[in-house]
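Exam revision sheet. Question 4 asks you to relate a sequence to its structure. Input first:
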Amino acid sequence: MYAIIKNGGKQYKVQEGDILLLDKMTLEPKSSFEIKEVLALNAGELRVGTPFVEGAVVTAEVINEGRERKVITFKKRRRKDSKVKRGFRRDFTRVRITKIAA
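Answer key, structure tokens:
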């Protein structure tokens, strides 16, 4: 059984026991929450929502929060004396999918 969920403008294919990095949600570790934005659900047969599957809920447990490794972007225009260096670290919430209910 798997589900396709929506979180933070992105879509994830999840099964029970999967660990995901979602956008930061400021929740306490070991707390659980429900994701009701289920786009598709496969439990023997595929059910696709319009836009969401009615009655489908994915339950997740928060493991921790953190920041990813720094990504550095560097742009240089040759012979123009123009350089730009920027860094970016994404904040995330690591969650474990505990239950998929139709």
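Marking note for examiners. The first strand starts at residue 2 and ends at 7.
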